[in-house]
């Protein structure tokens, strides 16, 4: 499987994109000194340093994160990059390059697999399709210098109006060194390779990264592969103008082992439906239905920025083409989409006022076909849906910050959105055209009594329109694929009012850094997706009784010296989520899908070039998996213990050894969400058992 990851198109793109980077590297030797750095001291607006990004986040009156994937040991999954970030919940599905569940403040968690609720950005420009959906497995964190998150209404992009906020993956550039090689391997056939080359001259820089992942999988029928090419090149004219171009291509394929009844988590955690002789095993046989997903995306983007801190403008455009084939075991959805977008921003400062204006536009044209899946071969049978879909967004933003006292800043912002979701059936001519106009305001307060200490509070609104995964609904009975039917579903916008307060502090000369945020959201018309008795998504509706999302997001990190030559590096993230139905059918019940407490912690003893120590991922309370809160099918609490050894030499050579789930705990990593379920229904995804992984990295 691994050799297939290096396919001809990937190599073609790699060679084509490598030529300018190689040329830049050659120019570097002849014309200017090569700068091999972590971008320290540079002032490049479109490719900021982590320090510059952190300073920008400090001006946001609310909860934010900054993760640095290059400081992590293993980067096999998105959770490796974001595991110790408070307020960001990632639940593995199958442990490889597949589709982990991402949630911030419960946004989008009801989609299955997760495909909405957060705006994903690549270098400041949206990755989502114009209908708000995304394929999370297409994300490759290895080429990210850092990842910033602005949780909830703290998002600053015009199109980021959802309850969850935004995540921005900032690419490494030619300023990050001449190149990088990373090799990783481990249990269950895990193999990964990344090779990157870059260079920086007086005005030009460029970088090309090629990566491939292969994973045989812990469970049966859970293999995955991902190949990715990412390249970018930048051009600067003094300190007042910069232009960057980006190319990315990703080919993602993975098998889906699907859900199993609760008792099989202990009895056969590697098994799938089809390993037993029950009527359910025969009906939902994974080996014959062959559920899987294959997605391929090509993306081009360009950004320009000019001006200085007094007045800076930026303009970006992007285009992406995505082909997606998703067999969920009873139906196969084939989607081809083309998305274009543009974004203009203006930031300025006048006396005690910071002001910001932005306009954005995006449009996606999608062709979506739905087929019943053969229960004997897994191949598509008759087509029962054929839709032309067109999503368009027009967005505007105006923001103002007023430094009314030396330590205090008042921040106000309003976003306006015109959102279109048109759908037409090519089979019977039926159509459903929907559009909404809404404003998303926010007012917040920042208090900074000294460097390293900040308090903040804000009141905000959020709005989220449905995606086509909710609007186009297909239903196929596994007993009767010939009776498959599809329909267009009219849905409303999910809306929320959120109150937020928090603080960030740097103490003991940076040896103790902490953040604490509390929020409360009243949500109206929450988009709730549910699955049938077989764990297959069947539909979405707006919950009429109202819901409430409240929680606490807390993080600690730092380094404490314990001997003359040694110190303990520590990280702790605690995310508390109390999400409930306020009224209606499930009044008072906990909304299924998110654990109330999720704790990730790590202690590493550092001496010389070595670091080693334990870590834990702890879910201390049982979690309901259906909205009726049926006690017999709660997800059991668990604690996963790990240990890692990390060796780094002169910021060039790094080696690691990582042990995960040392006690071989049997647990459910995720599950299907239903309105009401029983223990006999398949609904759980067993998590990975004990595993070992190791890797080598070299930067030059």
Automatic annotation (TrEMBL):
Domain TonB-dependent receptor plug stretches: 73-165
Keyword terms of this UniProt record: Cell outer membrane, Ion transport, Iron, Iron transport, Membrane, Receptor, Signal, TonB box, Transmembrane, Transmembrane beta strand, Transport
Stored SUPFAM superfamilies: Porins
Transmembrane found in the keyword field: yes
Secretion signal span: 1-25
Main location: membrane
Family, as annotated: Belongs to the TonB-dependent receptor family.
An MF annotation (GO) of this entry: siderophore uptake transmembrane transporter activity
Localization per record: Cell outer membrane
This protein's name: TonB-dependent receptor
A GO cellular-component term linked to this record: cell outer membrane
Membrane topology classification: Multi-pass membrane protein
InterPro entries from the UniProt entry: Beta-barrel_TonB (IPR000531), Beta-barrel_TonB_sf (IPR036942), Plug_dom (IPR012910), Plug_dom_sf (IPR037066), TonB-dep_rcpt-like (IPR039426)
Domain TonB-dependent receptor-like beta-barrel stretches: 237-662
């Amino acid at each position: 499987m691994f050799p297939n990851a290096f396919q001809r198109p990937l190599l073609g793109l790699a060679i084509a994109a490598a030529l300018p980077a190689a040329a830049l590297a050659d120019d570097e030797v002849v014309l200017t000194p090569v700068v091999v750095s972590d971008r320290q001291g540079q002032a490049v607006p479109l490719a900021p340093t982590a320090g510059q990004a952190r300073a920008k986040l400090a001006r946001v009156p609310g909860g934010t994160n900054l993760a640095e994937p290059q400081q992590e040991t293993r980067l096999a999954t998105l959770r490796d990059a974001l595991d110790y970030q408070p307020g960001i919940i990632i639940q593995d599905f199958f442990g490889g390059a597949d589709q982990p569940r991402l949630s911030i403040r419960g946004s989008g968690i009801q989609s299955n697999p997760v495909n909405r609720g957060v705006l994903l950005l690549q270098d400041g420009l949206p990755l989502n399709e114009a209908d708000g959906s995304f394929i999370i497995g297409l994300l490759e964190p290895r080429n990210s210098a850092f990842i910033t998150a602005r949780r909830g209404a703290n998002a600053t992009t015009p199109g980021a109006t959802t309850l969850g906020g935004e995540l921005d993956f900032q690419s490494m550039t030619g300023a990050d060194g001449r190149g990088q090689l990373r090799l990783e391997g481990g249990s269950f056939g895990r193999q990964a390779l990344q090779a990157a080359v870059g260079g920086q001259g007086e005005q030009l820089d460029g970088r090309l990264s090629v990566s491939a992942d292969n994973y045989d999988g812990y469970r049966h029928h859970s293999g995955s592969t991902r190949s990715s090419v990412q390249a970018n090149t930048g051009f600067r004219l003094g300190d007042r103008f910069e232009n960057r171009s980006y190319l990315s291509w990703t080919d993602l394929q993975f098998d889906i082992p699907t859900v199993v009844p609760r008792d099989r988590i202990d009895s056969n955690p590697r098994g799938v439906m089809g390993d037993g002789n029950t009527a359910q095993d025969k009906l939902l046989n994974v080996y014959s239905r062959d559920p899987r997903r294959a997605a391929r995306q090509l993306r081009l983007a360009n950004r320009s920025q000019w001006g200085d801190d007094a007045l800076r403008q930026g303009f970006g455009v992007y285009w992406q083409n995505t082909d997606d084939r998703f067999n969920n075991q009873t139906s196969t959805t084939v989607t081809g989409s083309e998305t274009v977008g543009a974004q203009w921003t203006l930031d300025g400062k006048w006396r005690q006022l910071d002001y910001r204006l932005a306009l954005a536009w995006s449009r996606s044209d999608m062709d979506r076909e739905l087929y019943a899946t053969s229960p004997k071969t897994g191949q598509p049978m008759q087509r029962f849906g054929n839709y032309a879909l067109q999503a368009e967004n027009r967005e505007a933003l105006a923001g103002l910050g007023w430094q009314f006292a030396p330590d205090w800043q008042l921040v106000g912002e309003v976003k306006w959105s015109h959102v279109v979701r048109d759908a037409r059936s090519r089979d019977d001519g039926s159509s459903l055209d929907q559009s909404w106009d809404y404003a998303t305001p926010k007012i917040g307060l920042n208090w900074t009594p000294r460097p390293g200490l900040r308090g903040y509070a804000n009141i905000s609104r959020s709005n989220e329109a449905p995606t086509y995964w909710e609007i186009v609904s297909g239903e196929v009975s596994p007993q009767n694929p010939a009776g498959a039917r599809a329909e267009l579903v009219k849905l409303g916008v999910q809306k929320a009012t959120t109150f937020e307060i928090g603080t960030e502090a740097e103490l003991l000369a940076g040896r103790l850094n902490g953040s604490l945020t509390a929020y409360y959201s009243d949500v109206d018309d929450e988009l709730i997706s549910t699955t049938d008795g077989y764990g297959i998504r069947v539909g979405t509706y707006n919950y009429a009784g109202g819901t409430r999302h409240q929680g606490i997001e807390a993080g600690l990190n730092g380094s404490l010296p314990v001997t003359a030559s040694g110190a303990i590096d520590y990280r702790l993230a605690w995310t508390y989520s109390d999400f409930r139905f306020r009224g209606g059918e499930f009044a008072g019940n906990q909304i299924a899908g998110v654990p109330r407490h999720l704790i990730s912690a790590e202690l590493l003893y550092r001496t010389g070039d070595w670091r080693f120590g334990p870590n834990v991922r702890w879910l201390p309370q049982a979690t309901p998996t259906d909205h009726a809160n049926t006690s017999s099918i709660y997800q059991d609490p668990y604690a996963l213990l790990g240990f890692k050894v990390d060796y780094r030499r002169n910021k060039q050579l790094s080696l690691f050894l990582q042990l995960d789930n040392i006690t071989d705990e049997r647990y459910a990593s995720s599950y299907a969400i239903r309105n009401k379920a029983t223990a006999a229904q398949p609904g759980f995804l067993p998590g990975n058992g004990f595993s070992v992984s190791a890797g080598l990295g070299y930067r030059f």
